[in-house]
Amino acid sequence: MANLRKEKRVRFQDSVEVSDGSRQLVREKGKEREVERPSPYSIAVTNRRKERSIIDQLSAFGITADNLVIALDFAVDNRTAGMSSFGGDCLHAVHKGIPNQYMLSMAIVGHAMSNLSVGRAGRPVFLGFSAADRDVFSLGSGEGCVRYDMHSGLRRYKQIAPYVPLGKPSSYAAPIEAAIEIVEKGGFYLLVVFTCGRNEEMWTTVTALKKASKYPLSIVFVGVGDGQWRFFQDLRMCLGLDDTPEARTALSNTSFVNFRDILAMPRVLREKEVRLSSACLHDLPDQYESFVQRGIITAQRCKCRRDSCILLPPDNVLRAEAARRLSCAEPVMAYGPYS
């Protein structure tokens, strides 16, 4: 143990950094060298250049918000997952005067996707999952109300969120299976699952991801609320240990982004928006090119409509809508892309 401690001390002393805020003095094994420390401004510029590069590549592929599926987690754990990050309120609370993390994160991602093509914003598919009486459902109640433009989708979410009965945490298989049904109609899609992350059904999720690997479907999990995010670490480990082509493809097509960490950064909101959108879209160009090389992107055959596994909204929502109790004050968001 003593030797181990000594070795750690020596390694720690091999490299020492002393900073005065703008420059860094680095000492390595008796040698000193001075390096320029990047300013917050230069970091912001670098991040925006990266985002611009990603946007340019996706624009060249003709991708818009039409290629986006937004899935929102309505599990009962949302009631306690905002204890430290949302003032102790349910993460789906919509009448606090500020946007909840679901609204803000999906607005940021949706805004980035909507701006990929000038003059053609597109309309994402909006889904909910893990409600008490619905595994997966559309936010709209009409036959054609699966897609909304981002502003209308945020407005619809804000209207129905108070009436959706929160259910037991289920696996993420339900939104993944729904996205697969949508992709089967043709085209490439990005499924973004916004979730509080408290889930225990690992193997059904792994099975669904392996099935999704056969389709041109990229999947990003965005964690909102307090966490914890151990499930997603274990998920990647399970896929990594599964030495099959499906698991390897699923691993490369799936990523996780911790929105709470981004939100907690001491930066202006615009910089946080850039970081979240860049993190969600970062792998898309390579994944899209991989789908093209595999020859699995087919032409869009028909418009996205309600499918066999995508149900109507929960009964509470339908009753509230029939009684004309659904309301949403403008602006939809106090701040953010759609304020």
List the helices and strands and how they pair.
Blueprint: H1 2-14, E1 15-19, E2 23-28, E3 31-36, H2 40-60, E4 68-73, H3 101-114, E5 125-131, E6 134-138, H4 150-160, H5 173-183, E7 189-195, H6 202-212, E8 217-223, H7 230-241, H8 245-253, E9 254-258, H9 259-263, H10 269-281, H11 284-294, H12 315-322
Helix pairs in contact: 2-10, 3-4, 3-10, 5-6, 6-8
The number of helical elements comes to: 12
Identify the CATH architecture of the largest domain.
3-Layer(aba) Sandwich
Q: In angstroms, what separates the terminal alpha carbons?
A: 58 Å
**CATH superfamily (homologous) name of the largest domain:** von Willebrand factor, type A domain
Give the radius of gyration: 22 Å
Shape: globular
Can you tell me the number of structural domains?
2
Sketch the topology as an H/E string, one letter per element. HEEEHEHEEHHEHEHHEHHHH
Describe the main β-sheet briefly: 6 strands, mixed
Widest beta sheet: strand line-up: 6-5-4-7-8-9
- CATH third-level topology of the largest domain: Rossmann fold
- Please tally the β strands and state the result: 9
Q: What is the mean predicted local confidence, pLDDT?
A: 86
- Which structural class do you get from the secondary structure elements? alpha/beta
**Helical residue percent?**
40-55%
User: Assembly state here?
Assistant: single chain
Into which percentage range does the β-strand content fall?
15-25%
Low-confidence stretches: 1-22
What is the CATH class name of the largest domain? Alpha Beta
GO molecular function, one term: ubiquitin-protein transferase activity
Protein name: Copine C-terminal domain-containing protein
InterPro entries: Copine_C, E3_ligase/Copine_domain, vWFA_dom_sf
Domain Copine C-terminal: 90-297
